[in-house]
Structure formats: C-alpha cells, structure tokens
Amino acid sequence: MIKRGRAEGWLKRPVDAFPTWAEFHGATFNNIRFGPIPGLEHRGSTVIANRDISGKAEEPLMTVPKDLIVSKQNIELFAKADHRLREVLDAIGEFAQTTRGAVLTFLLVQATICCPATKDVGNLSPLTEYIKFLPDELLPTFWTEEELALLTGSTLRPAVRAKLNSLLREFEIFRAATEEIAWCAKYWWDEDNGLLEFDDWMRVDAMYRSRALEFPGVGDCMVPCIDMANHASGEATSALYETDDDGNAVLILRDCKDIPKDGEITITYGDDKGATENIFSYGFLEESVASARAMFLDLEIPDDDPLSPAKKAVCTVAPGFRLYEKGDKTSWESDFVWLVAINEEDGLDFKLRQTVDGQREVQAFWKEHELDDTTRLRSYLEADTLWDVYQLRVVFLLQGRIDAQLHRLQETGNPERVASVRDGPWRLAERLRGLEFTMLDKARSDLEDQVSPPHVAPS
Ligand SMILES: C[S@@+](CC[C@H](N)C(=O)[O-])C[C@H]1O[C@@H](n2cnc3c(N)ncnc32)[C@H](O)[C@@H]1O
User: Fold this and answer.
1) ipTM greater than cut 0.95
2) Is the domain of 172 the same as that of 315?
3) Among protein residues, the one whose CA lies closest to atom 24 of ligand 1
4) Under the cellular component aspect of Gene Ontology, which terms does the record hold (predicted)?
C-alpha cells in the first residue's frame, strides 16, 4: 500500500509543503526552514537556519504542540474519536500497549485513510497527512540479498536477519488479530485486492525506528518537525530537544552554538550508539566515526557440553556478549558467558520440577543457590574460591569467539562490487567491516593482556 501510495502520489507530499501543514496545526518556527542542503542531499531534508543564529539569546527554534506528538498516550486519545483505530488497537492486545505497536498501527491506519480506494475507514486527524512527508529510509532491512552478503562477518548481518524474522512474525500476528474485523478483512486482507503486504510493515517499522526520540515526560515518540533534524555527535550537535512547561516539544540551540545563515541545525540520536546500531536504525554512519564503538557478538553453548539443553532451558539473558570501547581500551559485558563457562563438577546442577498446572520445568542451582535468574550467576561465582579459574575460562571463550569473527571478516575480504549493488549499502558495508575488524583485533589483544598474570577483570 505505502509503495503504491508513493508511486501514485496519494501518500507523498514535498517537503516545501511541510511548514504550512505544521503551522496550520499550531507548530511555530523561529528563523528556520526545512529542506535538503546543497551538496548533502544524501542526508535527506534537515533543519536549516534562515539567518545567523546565536545560541546565547534565542527563543526555541521550534515549538510543536503536545497534541501533535505521535506518542502512545496521544494515540489512545485519537482512538477515542476514531472507533476503527480503537478496534485495531483492541484486537492486537498487548502489542498496542507498547509505543512501537501503537505507532506502527496508527501509521498504517493513517495510510489506509489516505488511500483513495478506501471509504469510511477512520477519522482524519491532524496527523493523517504526516506520513506523506516521511521519506523511505534505506535501512538494511531494505537491502537486497547481494547487499546483505557484503555484511557477512559483521555483527550487522545476524542483527538484520533476526529483525526480518521478528518483523515477519509480528506481521503475521497483526494479520491474525485483525482479519476478523470487517473493514480490515475488506481493505487489508482480501485475497485479491487487499492493500497490506509485509512491505508495509517493514516501512512503518523503518519510519518509527529512524525517527523515534525519547522525550522527557512522554517517553519514546515521533515528534513531527523535530524529527526533521539530522544527527551530529559530540561538539557538532547544535541543538537539544525537550518538553516545555506545557508539555509541548521544543528545539533549542545549545548555549555554545552559533549557526550561520543556511547552516544545518542538528541534534544527537545518541552519541554512545555503535556503528552497527547506527546503520541498523538510521541507515547511515557519520563521516567522523572512526571506530565501531560497540558491538554484540552472539555465543553458543557448545554442542559437546552435556548440560547444553538444560542451560538453554534456564537461560534468562541474551546469548552473547557486548564489546565496547572504554577509554583507549576495549571492554566487554555479559551475563551469559558465565553460564557457558561452568559445569557440573564446578557446582552447577539441574532438577526437574512439577508445576501447579502439571507441566515439568527445569530448575537450575549453583551450589546451594537456586539460579532462577542468570544475571545473578556472576556474583555467586565472584564469591567462589575458583573465581580466577572461571574468569580465565571466560576470557578463552571470548578470545575463541572473537577469533572466529575475525576469520569470517577476513574470508569476506573486499568483495568485487556487482553493478546491482547500490552505492549507499556498498560504502556502509565496507566501512563497517573495516571498523569492526579493527575493534575486534584490538579486543583480541586487550584480552591477551588480561590472560597474563595476575588476572582478568571485566568491569
Ligand atoms: C529523524 S530523520 C531526519 C530527517 C530526514 N533527513 C528526513 O529527510 O526526513 C533520520 C534520517 O535522516 C538521515 N540522517 C540523519 N542524520 C544524518 C547524517 N548525519 N548523515 C546522513 N544521513 C543522516 C538518515 O537517513 C536517518 O535515517
């Protein structure tokens, strides 16, 4: 539906029309405009200064009324006036209680309202037009197989695969939950003319992922106008977003910043995010990024571990570890590795318990402690006389996993570029492979230092 709406023009409006739409709904702007910056068109539209602006004595650069914020609370309010939206939110149950679930549903309903093929699908709201101004971001979920293959050996490859699987699952759950609603059956799911496809789910997910911000007092949300600001990190960030005393969203220039006429006004999407996360969520990597910064490596419990099935059954944490930069060193964190590193001889034990409803459940024990939460294992091991030994085992595990990842990256090397691979994915994949290789290599040698006596200690 969304792809068709873009092509046929009923779900697309130019950025030039954006200020009129926003001002009509109560947004105010202070000497700024929206649009691409000549020479930087690949960044899409952004917020641009209409004159020299000084950070010292400025009013907010923009104020967006609180009822224009696409938040879970506001979607609940819109649903009071729109019983079709209410029906869908009720049908999807718990998913509608998450901001993401509510926003994705809301965007799909707005797109359906805009579609000329539908009648009486819902109420026009101030935000019905908003989706028309949102660009289609080339996030990795939209890369082709050839483009994704360029990520082999990087941590982005499994992350995209897992995301696509979970989007597919969500879409099927969404379909099953709404196909009994008469208007959804007719407009969305009809075998011949149904409008909704998996592609639509991917698109609304990408809109939300690339534009959601966390606002004080509101939580995660999309804020039209402020979400036109591009990202710059560190000292290059020129503006901050927050809510004012009335709950409206405001964009304010940082004290120390002066922006020349026609200069770009940027915010930060989070300076601590790693290169992988940036490409995953936003589809770009700032030019100044010189390190992968953080990455998550999955880890498997070896098949030859006789406790493997029981360990998997009781594990309550993500199976892997996070590598991150800490000063000029790398460090790591994981609650999972400890479960991999210990065995029965050390004091790990499992029992089968009958639950009240007659099911059988695996119960884990570390010596006299019941281990119903894997995050507690590390503190138990720390108190053990063999703590040094466990740490060494973990370091060897990490080294082995890092070596395997380095090997995979080496195998991928610098592949030949085929003509169908687009420039953006090509450059991003090449940069990411390089950045992750460098960081893994460094992590390898930092761990090597830890293996040498006296001993190891992640912090
Ligand atoms: C919140 S939107 C910002 C507005 C967006 N440029 C537009 O045209 O609507 C986030 C998206 O803007 C682009 N973007 C933001 N900052 C960027 C940067 N520093 N370099 C390249 N692209 C950037 C990315 O495509 C990202 O997914």
Assistant:
1) yes
2) no
3) 282
4) nucleus
CA 261 / ligand 1 centre spacing (Å): 20
Ligand 1 atom, smallest distance to 213 CA: 1
Residue 360 lies in a domain: no
Single-letter code of the amino acid located at 268: T
Residues 183 and 304 in one domain: no
Name the residue of 221, 282, 431 to mutate for ligand 1: max ligand atoms within 8 A of Cβ: 282
Does the residue 364 lie in any domain? no
Mean pLDDT along residues 364-388? 94
| Same domain assignment for residues 192 and 339 | no
Distance 221 CA to ligand 1 centre (A): 16
Domain count, the chain: 2
Q: State the average pLDDT for the chain.
A: 94
Distance in Å, CA 198 to ligand 1 centroid:
24
For residue 278, is it within any domain? Answer: no
For a pocket test of ligand 1, which of 230, 237, 271, 278 has the largest count of ligand atoms closer than 8 A to its C-beta?
A: 230
- Domain carrying residue 331: 290-347+374-451
pLDDT at 57: 64
Give residue ranges with CB within 6 A of ligand 1: 43-46, 135, 137, 210-211, 227-228, 230-232, 282-284, 286
Measured distance CA(352)–CA(374) in Å, rounded: 17
**Single-letter amino acid, residue 170:** E
CA distance 190 to 182: 10
Cα of 272 from ligand 1 centre, angstroms:
17
Q: What is the largest CA-CA distance in the chain?
A: 73
261 with 51: CB under 8 angstroms? yes
Residue 343 in domain: yes
How confident is the model over 105-161, as pLDDT tens digits? 999 999 999 999 999 888 888 999 999 999 999 999 999 999 999 999 999 999 999
Q: Specify the pTM.
A: 0.92
Q: 259 and 49 in contact (C-beta within 8 Å)? A: yes
Taking alpha carbons only, the member of 128, 130, 72, 73 closest to residue 103 is 72
Q: Rounded to an integer, what is the distance from CA 138 to the centroid of its chain?
A: 14
